Amino acid sequence: MIETVIFYFFAACLVGAATGVITARNSVYAVLFLVLAFFSSAGLWLLLEAEFLAIILVLVYVGALMVLFLFVVMMVDLDALEIRKDASRYLPFGALVAVLIALQMAVVIGSRQFGLELFPRPERMPADYSNTRELGELLYTVYVYPFEIAGAILLVAIVAAISLTLRHRRSTRDEPKRWTGVRSGERVRLVAMPPEHQTRREGRGGASSDEVPR
Protein backbone atom coordinates (compact mmCIF):
# COMPACT_ATOMS: atom_id res chain seq x y z
CA MET A 1 0.00 0.00 0.00
CA ILE A 2 2.74 2.43 0.94
CA GLU A 3 4.60 1.68 -2.32
CA THR A 4 1.51 2.57 -4.32
CA VAL A 5 1.17 5.90 -2.50
CA ILE A 6 4.87 6.69 -3.07
CA PHE A 7 4.57 5.74 -6.74
CA TYR A 8 1.62 8.04 -7.36
CA PHE A 9 3.36 10.82 -5.44
CA PHE A 10 6.49 10.66 -7.58
CA ALA A 11 4.42 10.19 -10.74
CA ALA A 12 2.34 13.29 -9.97
CA CYS A 13 5.52 15.29 -9.25
CA LEU A 14 7.03 14.09 -12.52
CA VAL A 15 3.98 15.01 -14.61
CA GLY A 16 3.65 18.39 -12.90
CA ALA A 17 7.36 19.17 -13.33
CA ALA A 18 7.29 18.17 -16.99
CA THR A 19 4.30 20.44 -17.52
CA GLY A 20 6.11 23.27 -15.76
CA VAL A 21 9.12 22.87 -18.05
CA ILE A 22 7.11 23.65 -21.16
CA THR A 23 4.80 26.25 -19.60
CA ALA A 24 7.19 28.31 -17.46
CA ARG A 25 7.71 31.84 -18.72
CA ASN A 26 11.07 32.18 -17.02
CA SER A 27 13.92 30.06 -18.39
CA VAL A 28 15.45 29.60 -14.93
CA TYR A 29 12.16 28.24 -13.60
CA ALA A 30 12.00 25.83 -16.55
CA VAL A 31 15.45 24.46 -15.68
CA LEU A 32 14.47 24.08 -12.03
CA PHE A 33 11.31 22.22 -13.05
CA LEU A 34 13.50 19.91 -15.14
CA VAL A 35 15.68 19.23 -12.09
CA LEU A 36 12.53 18.29 -10.15
CA ALA A 37 11.50 15.98 -12.99
CA PHE A 38 14.87 14.20 -12.81
CA PHE A 39 14.56 13.77 -9.05
CA SER A 40 11.07 12.33 -9.47
CA SER A 41 12.31 9.91 -12.13
CA ALA A 42 15.11 8.84 -9.79
CA GLY A 43 12.51 8.11 -7.10
CA LEU A 44 10.54 5.93 -9.51
CA TRP A 45 13.68 4.01 -10.45
CA LEU A 46 14.37 3.40 -6.78
CA LEU A 47 10.93 1.81 -6.51
CA LEU A 48 11.93 -0.49 -9.38
CA GLU A 49 15.10 -1.45 -7.45
CA ALA A 50 17.32 0.24 -10.03
CA GLU A 51 19.52 2.06 -7.54
CA PHE A 52 22.44 2.48 -9.89
CA LEU A 53 20.40 4.19 -12.58
CA ALA A 54 18.76 6.46 -10.01
CA ILE A 55 22.12 7.54 -8.59
CA ILE A 56 23.56 8.10 -12.07
CA LEU A 57 20.53 10.21 -12.99
CA VAL A 58 21.01 12.44 -9.94
CA LEU A 59 24.80 12.70 -10.14
CA VAL A 60 25.22 13.14 -13.90
CA TYR A 61 22.10 14.97 -15.03
CA VAL A 62 21.16 16.94 -11.93
CA GLY A 63 24.63 17.42 -10.51
CA ALA A 64 26.44 18.26 -13.73
CA LEU A 65 24.33 18.92 -16.81
CA MET A 66 21.45 20.78 -15.19
CA VAL A 67 23.80 22.95 -13.13
CA LEU A 68 25.68 23.80 -16.32
CA PHE A 69 22.44 24.59 -18.15
CA LEU A 70 21.29 26.74 -15.24
CA PHE A 71 24.50 28.79 -15.27
CA VAL A 72 24.28 29.21 -19.05
CA VAL A 73 20.64 30.33 -18.88
CA MET A 74 21.42 32.78 -16.07
CA MET A 75 24.44 34.25 -17.88
CA VAL A 76 22.82 34.53 -21.30
CA ASP A 77 20.37 37.41 -21.55
CA LEU A 78 17.36 35.80 -23.20
CA ASP A 79 14.53 37.98 -24.36
CA ALA A 80 11.46 36.01 -23.33
CA LEU A 81 9.09 38.29 -25.21
CA GLU A 82 10.90 37.76 -28.50
CA ILE A 83 11.02 34.01 -27.93
CA ARG A 84 7.29 33.80 -27.19
CA LYS A 85 6.48 36.01 -30.17
CA ASP A 86 8.39 33.72 -32.51
CA ALA A 87 7.10 30.56 -30.84
CA SER A 88 3.46 31.55 -31.29
CA ARG A 89 3.81 31.10 -35.05
CA TYR A 90 4.80 27.45 -34.60
CA LEU A 91 2.12 26.64 -32.02
CA PRO A 92 -0.24 24.78 -34.42
CA PHE A 93 2.58 22.65 -35.80
CA GLY A 94 3.88 21.94 -32.29
CA ALA A 95 0.42 20.92 -31.13
CA LEU A 96 0.08 18.54 -34.09
CA VAL A 97 3.43 16.94 -33.31
CA ALA A 98 2.47 16.57 -29.62
CA VAL A 99 -0.78 14.82 -30.55
CA LEU A 100 1.05 12.43 -32.90
CA ILE A 101 3.61 11.60 -30.21
CA ALA A 102 0.84 10.95 -27.68
CA LEU A 103 -0.93 8.61 -30.12
CA GLN A 104 2.28 6.71 -30.83
CA MET A 105 2.97 6.31 -27.12
CA ALA A 106 -0.57 5.08 -26.54
CA VAL A 107 -0.15 2.45 -29.27
CA VAL A 108 3.30 1.31 -28.16
CA ILE A 109 2.87 1.24 -24.39
CA GLY A 110 -0.78 0.32 -24.31
CA SER A 111 -2.25 -2.33 -22.06
CA ARG A 112 -2.02 -4.96 -24.79
CA GLN A 113 1.77 -4.69 -25.02
CA PHE A 114 2.75 -3.63 -21.49
CA GLY A 115 -0.08 -4.76 -19.29
CA LEU A 116 0.33 -6.42 -15.90
CA GLU A 117 -0.79 -9.69 -17.42
CA LEU A 118 2.17 -9.73 -19.81
CA PHE A 119 4.72 -8.23 -17.42
CA PRO A 120 3.95 -9.14 -13.83
CA ARG A 121 5.63 -7.52 -10.84
CA PRO A 122 9.29 -8.65 -10.62
CA GLU A 123 10.35 -10.79 -7.73
CA ARG A 124 12.10 -9.30 -4.74
CA MET A 125 15.87 -9.68 -4.82
CA PRO A 126 17.91 -10.63 -1.76
CA ALA A 127 19.79 -8.02 0.24
CA ASP A 128 23.19 -8.98 -1.21
CA TYR A 129 21.97 -8.56 -4.80
CA SER A 130 23.80 -5.82 -6.76
CA ASN A 131 22.14 -4.53 -9.91
CA THR A 132 25.29 -2.54 -10.63
CA ARG A 133 27.31 -5.72 -10.96
CA GLU A 134 24.62 -7.39 -13.06
CA LEU A 135 24.42 -4.35 -15.34
CA GLY A 136 28.21 -4.23 -15.72
CA GLU A 137 28.47 -7.91 -16.56
CA LEU A 138 25.69 -7.62 -19.13
CA LEU A 139 27.07 -4.40 -20.62
CA TYR A 140 30.67 -5.57 -20.98
CA THR A 141 29.94 -9.09 -22.16
CA VAL A 142 26.78 -9.33 -24.24
CA TYR A 143 26.57 -5.70 -25.39
CA VAL A 144 30.27 -4.84 -25.44
CA TYR A 145 30.38 -4.02 -29.17
CA PRO A 146 27.31 -1.71 -29.16
CA PHE A 147 28.75 -0.05 -26.05
CA GLU A 148 32.10 0.60 -27.74
CA ILE A 149 30.40 1.85 -30.92
CA ALA A 150 28.28 4.27 -28.89
CA GLY A 151 31.43 5.55 -27.15
CA ALA A 152 33.15 6.10 -30.50
CA ILE A 153 30.12 7.99 -31.83
CA LEU A 154 30.09 10.24 -28.77
CA LEU A 155 33.83 10.87 -29.18
CA VAL A 156 33.31 11.86 -32.81
CA ALA A 157 30.48 14.19 -31.76
CA ILE A 158 32.71 15.85 -29.16
CA VAL A 159 35.52 16.37 -31.67
CA ALA A 160 33.05 17.75 -34.23
CA ALA A 161 31.59 20.20 -31.69
CA ILE A 162 35.06 21.43 -30.74
CA SER A 163 36.10 21.84 -34.37
CA LEU A 164 32.94 23.82 -35.16
CA THR A 165 33.59 26.25 -32.32
CA LEU A 166 37.23 26.90 -33.22
CA ARG A 167 38.08 30.28 -34.66
CA HIS A 168 41.24 31.60 -36.21
CA ARG A 169 43.22 33.03 -33.33
CA ARG A 170 46.37 35.04 -33.47
CA SER A 171 49.37 33.35 -31.94
CA THR A 172 50.39 34.69 -28.54
CA ARG A 173 54.05 33.78 -29.01
CA ASP A 174 56.55 36.56 -29.60
CA GLU A 175 57.66 36.83 -33.19
CA PRO A 176 61.05 38.59 -33.62
CA LYS A 177 60.23 39.57 -37.17
CA ARG A 178 57.11 41.41 -36.05
CA TRP A 179 58.99 43.37 -33.39
CA THR A 180 62.08 44.24 -35.48
CA GLY A 181 59.96 45.47 -38.37
CA VAL A 182 58.17 48.10 -36.31
CA ARG A 183 58.80 51.69 -37.37
CA SER A 184 59.31 54.57 -35.02
CA GLY A 185 55.93 56.06 -35.86
CA GLU A 186 54.20 52.86 -34.75
CA ARG A 187 55.86 52.77 -31.33
CA VAL A 188 54.61 56.09 -29.91
CA ARG A 189 51.55 58.04 -30.88
CA LEU A 190 51.38 61.68 -29.84
CA VAL A 191 47.91 63.04 -29.22
CA ALA A 192 47.36 66.81 -29.03
CA MET A 193 44.75 67.64 -26.41
CA PRO A 194 43.75 71.28 -25.86
CA PRO A 195 43.64 72.33 -22.20
CA GLU A 196 40.20 72.77 -20.76
CA HIS A 197 41.04 75.54 -18.30
CA GLN A 198 44.19 77.43 -17.39
CA THR A 199 44.73 80.04 -14.70
CA ARG A 200 47.73 82.26 -14.53
CA ARG A 201 49.23 83.27 -11.29
CA GLU A 202 52.30 85.20 -10.34
CA GLY A 203 55.07 83.25 -8.76
CA ARG A 204 58.02 84.34 -6.80
CA GLY A 205 60.38 86.69 -8.60
CA GLY A 206 57.69 87.82 -11.02
CA ALA A 207 57.64 84.52 -12.86
CA SER A 208 54.31 83.19 -14.08
CA SER A 209 53.13 79.60 -13.88
CA ASP A 210 50.11 77.60 -15.02
CA GLU A 211 47.81 76.10 -12.46
CA VAL A 212 45.74 73.09 -13.30
CA PRO A 213 42.23 73.38 -11.89
CA ARG A 214 40.95 70.83 -9.43
How would you characterize this protein structure?
With 214 residues, the protein is mainly alpha-helical. The chain contains ten helices and two strands. It has helices at residues 2-23, 27-47, 51-75, 80-87, 91-108, 111-114, 131-139, 144-165, 176-180, 184-187, and strands spanning 199-202, 208-211. Strands 1-2 form a two-stranded antiparallel sheet. A hairpin with a 5-residue loop joins strand 1 (199-202) and strand 2 (208-211). Helix 1 (2-23) runs antiparallel to helix 2 and helix 2 (27-47) packs antiparallel against helix 3. The longest helix is centred in the N-terminal third of the chain and has 25 residues, at 51-75. 4% of the residues are buried. The model is unreliable at 202-214 (pLDDT under 50).
Quick structural gist:
The chain has 214 residues and is mostly helical.
The percent range for strand residues is under 5%
Q: How are helices and strands ordered from N to C?
A: HHHHHHHHHHEE
- Profile the largest sheet: 2 strands, antiparallel
Q: Total helix count?
A: 10
Structural class: mainly alpha
Indicate the radius of gyration in whole angstroms.
33 Å
| Largest beta sheet: strand ordering | 1-2
Unreliable runs: 202-214
As an assembly, this protein is single chain
Which range best describes the helical content: under 10%, 10-25%, 25-40%, 40-55%, 55-70% or over 70%? 55-70%
Strands, count? 2
Features:
214 residues; mainly alpha; disordered C terminus; 2 strands; two-stranded antiparallel ribbon; 10 helices; 4% strand
